[in-house]
Amino acid sequence: MARRVLVVEDSASTRAFVRAVLEGETFAQRLGGAEVTEAKSGFEAMRMLPRGPYDLIITDINMGDINGLELIAFVRKNEHHKSTPLVIISTQSTERDVERGMALGANKFVAKPFAAEQLVEACAEVLEAHHG
Amino acid sequence: MAEQGGGKGESDRAREEFLSEAQELIDGLGRDVLALDELSKVGRSDPELINDVFRAVHTLKGLSGLFGASMMSGLSHELEEVLDDLRLGRIELSQRVLDVVFRAVELYGMLLGVERGNGMDLSSDIEALLVSLGEVSHRGRAGGASPVAQYELDPGLLGVLTEYEEHRLRTNIQNGMSLYKLRVAFPLATIDSALDELKANARPHGEIITYLPTGGGSDADAIELEILIASKESVDTLRSALSGHQLAIEEVPRRPASPGARTSLPPMARLSVPAAPSFGPEAGTQLVADVARVPIASLAPPPDRDLTLRSVTQTVRVDIRKLDHLMNVVGELAIVRTELMAVVDRLRNRAEMRPLMQELLRLHRSFERHLEQMQGGILEVRMVPLGQVFEKLARVVRQLSREHDKQVNLVITGAETELDKLIVEELSDPLMHMIRNALDHGIESRDERLRAGKPPVGTIALNAFQKGNQVLLEVEDDGRGMDPKQIADVALRRGILTPDEARDLSVRDALSLIFRPGFTTREEATDLSGRGVGMDVVKTNIGKLGGVVEVSSDLGIGTKVTITLPITLAIISVLFVEVAGRTYAMPLTSVEEAIVYDQTATRTFEGREVMTVRGATLPICSLSRLFGHTTSSPPPHGFVVVTSVGNRRVGFIVDSLIGQQDIVIKALGRTLRGTRGFAGATELGDQRVALVLDASALVEEAFAEKERAA
Predict the structure, then answer these.
(1) Same domain for B617 and B478?
(2) ipTM value of the model?
(3) Residue B543 CA, distance from chain mean position
(4) Domain holding A13: CATH number?
(5) Residue B591: which of B661, B544, B537, B684 has the closest Cα?
């Protein structure tokens, strides 16, 4: 069964890359494929959230309007999404921001740049943990 | 879809997306850095701009890593450190830092070229830059104790600040600003633009540190935000500045000096309970009391604003080849239109078909109108402002003027002038060349200028403007100018010019010698008080775009190089003419007029065949002879198409004029591509093909022919 994934990222090519990974074969074999929804800003993500539920949220931190941390805080406060597995994709240099993200309730951090397998691995980990 | 997986096609697309996104980021970066440089000249800075630069590099770093562009990613990594230091106030925005950042922007452009496969080796350049980056960065120097603790700020809010936002908060507090919390609810659909408006209104009064969605609000279609803003204004001033927005403003109180005596303000978290139906004064809070409670439904925008509000997401990036394809389709449709008209004409002669013919004619007109609109529409999409190229040039001027220690003002006008995207892309190298020459050879040293009684700072003007169907670009300097005699001497030495030719050489012809191949080489260019570095290449490249380059110069006063270009490459208006039974298309941009050929008005003058037209002498040339058709002598009843390219005019003798039309020009096939004198081909309505003449090559050919004959 395909997983519904919300990808929040302000860079179009990173979104395209993440989409390619999620819709790729490895992900399909391990996790049954993905149905990807893209959001290119925190606000757009908030607009997309009510169209969920999502099985997984992947978000960047440094974004134009509301930052990823604020989005994570918002997601965790929301009745419908408070336990949705959430993966941060960000560069290592924003270490302190990543720490905060994890403290706010993110489940996993994947440092950019990452290889396709790393992302699949991280998704598998949080999805499997979530479903027990 | 999910089962199929993202095969190679998807990754290729992602890679293409990467290249174009990186290009956009680098362009934006260049613009921002240039703006920072301008600000720093007047001793100012802009934290938002610095943060934009940081974020662009941050994104580039992520991207290049993802797509295996290791050098770009390495450079970004180091650059990001420096920019991070800069935005977090660890280092100052000095001239030196700016230089390094400029160099990085330049290298980014080259690295992207490498990613596109131009095979340059940049490793030593990168190496050198990494060293300079290391020198300017101040790793690990931490800031002092946080002044943020003085304020009654909710830990929930502080917990979602990024490091950068925290830094801005600290800086603002240190600068003596007061902190305010705004609460406002926006409809989800229009939040981006509504927020932009709020930002614009707030900007003159302070700096927005962060936006935090509270999770409150009764309506699923609205977002309630808590906005932290730092301002020197009082709460009343701020409130009236933002009175157009329906929001609540509250000053964040400072903690009393003595700990223990806390104010009665409860943590913000209490206000943002998810279930809270709306915001407003609650017991025990110090929210300003007079703010009206606004039902969220009433915040929906009036319907007429709907269009502008969505602008953020309304751009698409399109491969220019797709537009070329669409233009070809328009070309096909134009042929259909012509064929349709032929049918109308056939019906015209049949009385019983008259009503049908009229109906068809009406349809034809309507078809034609819509086709024109479509053509116009596609052309418009292809147009981009020249500003894109000018920004790059401004960077080059800045860099060169530092390298050569010559002070130069670059004055740009007409950056908004639009040209076909393909032309704009091809322009950057020739323009770069011309600017380099102006700086290198045109502008004198400071001392030399002072001795000549000129202002010590030189000026290079870059002007662009539209003139009819053409765009004119001028690069003008107030340097030492070029000496026609000296140019002629060099040309003589190089064997480009014969002593005979040199004797009665006009000033203009002398100056245009710099466009001859082999006129001068780089090493020797400095001998000459002018330019000449690769100007033949400039001319060839501009010629390929259907343009012309001309130069004028006054010794001691300055030099002006003018490029004349067609607005677009995709479509041109032509005059169809017949020569020796064949149809040719002459671009109308270079046609001045067509007059009746009068053999009695022609004579030979200085070895050239000329014709007197309204008292002036016009060199003429038979196209039929030029093309080597067997009918050597012009027919007695021909026409002369007066063609001008740059400052040169030639009358081309043709057999007859067919008419003018807008055509879609197509490239010649591989075997014909190198043929001089033809710019391309176009289809005629009756399945035939006509060659499109290359006016500038023909005019040159006509002059050369005369010179050979002489």
Answers:
(1) no
(2) 0.73
(3) 20
(4) 3.40.50.2300
(5) B661
Q: How far is B362 from chain A (nearest CA, A)?
A: 47
Q: Is B291 exposed, middle or buried (0-12, 13-18, 19+ CB in 10 A)?
A: middle
pTM of the model: 0.43
Contact B162 A62 (CB under 8 A): yes
- Which chain A residues have a beta carbon less than 8 Å from that of B210? 66-67, 70
Handedness of CA B669, B670, B672, B673 (dihedral sign): positive
Give every CB contact of residue A122 below 8 A, 6+ residues apart in sequence: A87, A108, A110
Residues B425 and B559 both lie in one domain = yes
Residues of A in contact with B67 (CB under 8 A): 13, 17
B291 and B218 in one domain? yes
Q: Out of A2, A11, A61, whose CB is closest to B2?
A: A2
Do B611 and B653 touch, CB atoms closer than 8 A?
no
Taking phi over 0 as left and psi of -120 to 50 as alpha, with beta for the rest, B431 belongs to: alpha
| Angle, CA A56 vertex, CA A54 and CA A59 arms, to 5° | 110
Q: Are residues B525 and B396 in the same domain?
A: yes
Contact A67 B2 (CB under 8 A): no
**Rounded Cα distance, B633 and B624, in Å:** 8
**Please, what is the Cα angle at B114 between B113 and B119, to 5 degrees?**
120
Chosen for mutation from A13, A41, A96, A98 (greatest number of chain B CBs closer than 10 Å) is A13
Residue closest to A58 by CA, chosen among A120, A13, A113, A2: A120
Could you list the mean pLDDT of each consecutive 10-residue stretch along chain B, which spans 710 residues? Answer: 46 79 88 87 83 88 82 86 84 84 89 81 82 71 54 75 82 83 82 81 85 68 83 85 81 62 37 37 37 39 41 64 84 81 84 85 89 85 84 82 82 86 84 86 87 89 82 91 87 81 81 78 40 69 82 90 80 85 87 86 81 85 82 69 83 89 74 74 78 86 68
- Residue found under tokens 């962060």: B210
Token pair recorded at residue B482: 């070029």
Q: Which domain holds residue B512?
A: 386-566
What is the percentage of chain A residues whose pLDDT exceeds 70?
97
- Top residue of A70, A81, A95 to mutate, by most chain B CBs within 10 Å, is A70
Residues of A in contact with B161 (CB under 8 A): 69
Q: Which of B542, B566, B590 is the last residue of a domain?
A: B566
